[in-house]
Amino acid sequence: MKRKMLAVVCLVFSALLLFAQTSKPVVNKNPVTLKLMFFSPELTDQYNDMAATYKAETGNTLDITVLQADYVTVLRAKLNSGDIPDVFMSSAYADNDTYKDYCYDLTNEDFMKQLEPTSMTGVTVNGRVIGYPFLVQSHSFIYNKKVFADAGITVLPRTLAEYDAVCKKLKAKGIQPFATGFKEWWVLPQTAWQVMAPIKDSFGGDYAKFVDQLNAGTVKFSTLKEMNTVFDVLDLIKNNGGPKPMESDFNDQCSMLASGKVAMIHQGNWAEDTIRKTNPTIDIGYLLGPVSGPADKAGIMFDSNQTIRIAKDSKNLKAALDWLRWLTTSDYGKNWIPGKILQLSPIKGAKASKAELAQATMDLLAKKTPNYSWYYQRFPTGTEQGLGIILQGYCAGMTNRQDTLKALDSSYKKIVDASK
Amino acid sequence: MKSENLKRHLRSTLEFAGFTVPAVIVIFAFVELPFLMSVLYSFTKWNGLDKVPVFIGFANYMEIFTNDPNMMQALGFTLLFTVFMVFFTNVIAMLLAVALDSKVRGKNVLRAAFYVPNIISMIIIGYIWRFIFSKGFDSFYALTKIPAFQLSWLGDAKLSFVSVVIVSVWQAIGFYMVIYIAGLQTVPKDIIEAAMIDGARSSTRFFRITMPLILPSITVCLFYSLSSALKTFDVIFSLTFGGPGTATTSIALDIYKTAFSDSRFGYGSAKSVLLFFLILLVTVFQLSLFKKREVEA
Question: What is the model's pLDDT at position B52?
């Protein structure tokens, strides 16, 4: 009896195998397996969905490794040992220089013309395009619209004084104005550098000139008058950030905003997914961040930073380029970022994302609200954490403004010297 | 007769080698060799990516001593942390060992309970305590209104030091307790009884008889707690990440940040070589001090 059943099961399985063999939709004589290294593990499902579709449409396999905290370490070890992935991710700007020996020059690829020219700034070096802008993201203050309405706030704040007034109103209603995120070393620089974003006006509108002078040491944090406003904004957030402002991390920010316990957080549109996990129906929007300068300079930070790079020496170079072309021109590829990842796509004429913060970004841009590029990504690699930790020390009351500025200058100089 | 002796000698040598050589090979490949390589790298400027590191002589070492406030801050933190850590783990572990070596009801359960933190991953412990210190304490405050729960245990520069010490001690005591219990069980009962007959009080019995007899255990525990406190990394990494600012950055974490965040692998190697010599110096001093005083029952 048992043996009979086994035989039947075997038969069924072999029949299934046969069918599986014959029902393959695409005939690809030389299927290629591409090795990819990506970060942002929160997008793993979307990566896998894309890889599955690509395999179904072309027969080529995408072998994607997704890492976060030790991404850079692992990538460097692989590049060093010659085990180079065909495709990998990095930041834009300063990382152009870091990985210059490994990146394929995409300037003359036909599909690159399908991308918005504004998203190319971060991946262009001396007129050569050496990376593919993957996502367009924005960050500023995010507010809970219901909490604002309940507190009777109808005019959205733009300047430091207006933010201060809003905080007083919220506190009077018993609502904590901010969740700081100050435990996270990457939140602090994002918050701080947005405040001095209009600094480009002092350098002919060109951030490259500003960063060049910072690198050369002719401009220093301790002599920038904008830093005073930076400290004022950090103080404001800290003083209105509840009893334990230094313990708030990304998850705390998202859950506090989602549950209506705080009114504002400084974050980017990537936070929306996490916020909606706590409160799927929340109504949120962007506030213009206060800046050092006139009120009409207040804006949001908007750029494409996450970058896809094709390895120059890859054995599967052509296949890797075919994949990028597919990602840019196929129906699935065009819909992938707005439809599945729910963020902003750099492809020309891409559909608008359904996500509320992505839409808010597009609305603000359409209204010609000031938007600034993520110029701090031009600072040498390593400064984000180094300077973030110094700003954290200031917020925890360990250093005063004078000493903080000195520490910023000396830390910046060290990393510049090391990267020479 | 002579060849018989030689044979035996050869045999025991072979036996000895058979047991030790595999371990020596593994330790050489995975501990000594990387260490020697990091000594080499400590004389270079290397960002971890360039194919060829640039030889720069002693410049890295010069920088540590002349121009690195972060390293000095980390050194200060680590030394202070080590003092607190060694003192509290050993005293508490010894007290627990004495208590759990006597005839207490349920002592096996208690021994296990105190040992459990030692077998949980340090990273997990860091995250659990991070939750307790922030969300947990918030709830405790809402329930009890005790102001201590409202303090920022991980956000205040001074308190975060206390938090790191508390968690590290809590995690470590189980291990040292077991060593002390083992030591206490080797103390011959007849000597203690003799002392009792002579009229020695319990404190005298402990300090004059038990303590000298378990000095080997104390030597081991001090040595081990010293070297692990000087190298402390994982609890801090997951509990505070050295913050706020650099308030709880230990030397090991500073090395990690130098290498992997600043991309200065050569400079980080130089720091780790110095950390090695610091630990070597402190522990050799401690060992030679204590070995002299050990007595046999």
Answer: 82
Domain assignment present for B38 = no
Angle formed at CA A202 by CA A198 and CA A206, multiple of 5 degrees: 75
ipTM above 0.85, yes or no: no
A185 token code pair: 């070393």
**Pick among B44, B70, B253 to test the A interface (most A CBs inside 10 A):** B70
Last-in-domain residue among A314, A348, A382: A348
Of A291, A325, A348, which residue constitutes the final position of a domain?
A348
Residue of B nearest to A419 (CA): B47
* Contact assignment for B244 to A419 by CB distance below 8 Å: no
SS (H, E, C) A312-348: CCCCCHHHHHHHHHHHHHCHHHHHHHHHHHCCECCEC
User: Are A418 and B247 a contacting pair at CB < 8 A?
Assistant: no
> Does residue A327 lie in a domain region?
yes
Quick one: pLDDT band at residue A24, thresholds 50, 70, 90? Answer: very low
Judged by a CB distance cut-off of 8 A, whether residue B144 touches chain A is no
In this structure, the answer to whether residues A56 and A184 fall within a common structural domain is no
Per-residue pLDDT of B42-61, as tens digits, reads 999 988 777 788 999 999 99
B182 in a structural domain = yes
Compute the CA torsion angle A214, A216, A217, A218 (nearest 10 deg). Answer: -90
What one-character DSSP code corresponds to residue B210? Answer: I
Q: How far apart are CA B159 and CA B16, in angstroms?
A: 51
CATH number at residue B286: 1.10.3720.10
Contact A207, A373 (CB under 8 A): yes
Is there a contact between B257 and A385 if contact means CB atoms under 8 Å apart? yes
pLDDT confidence bin for A21, thresholds 50/70/90 = very low
Q: How far is A369 from chain B (nearest CA, A)?
A: 34
* A409/B240 Cα distance (integer angstroms): 25
Check pLDDT > 60 for residue A98: yes
Q: Where are the alpha helices (DSSP H) in A2-130?
A: 2-22, 44-58, 71-81, 94-98
Q: What percent of chain B has pLDDT over 90?
A: 69
How many other C-beta atoms are found inside a 10 Å radius of the C-beta of residue A26? 11
- Mean pLDDT of all residues in B28-48: 92
What angle, 0 to 180 degrees and rounded to 10, lies between the N-to-C axes of helices A226-239 and A187-195? 130
Q: Give me Rg for the CA atoms of chain A.
A: 24
pLDDT of A31 higher than 80: yes
B155 and A247 within 8 Å at the Cβ level: the answer is yes
Tokens of B243: 């913050």
Q: Model confidence over A162-175: pLDDT tens digits?
A: 999 999 999 999 99
Return the residue in A385, A389, A394 with the most chain B beta carbons within 10 A, the one to mutate for interface testing.
A389
∠A46-A50-A54 over CA atoms, to 5°?
A: 170
Separation of alpha carbons A258 and A272, rounded Å: 10
Instruction: Give how many domains chain B has, as a whole number.
Output: 1
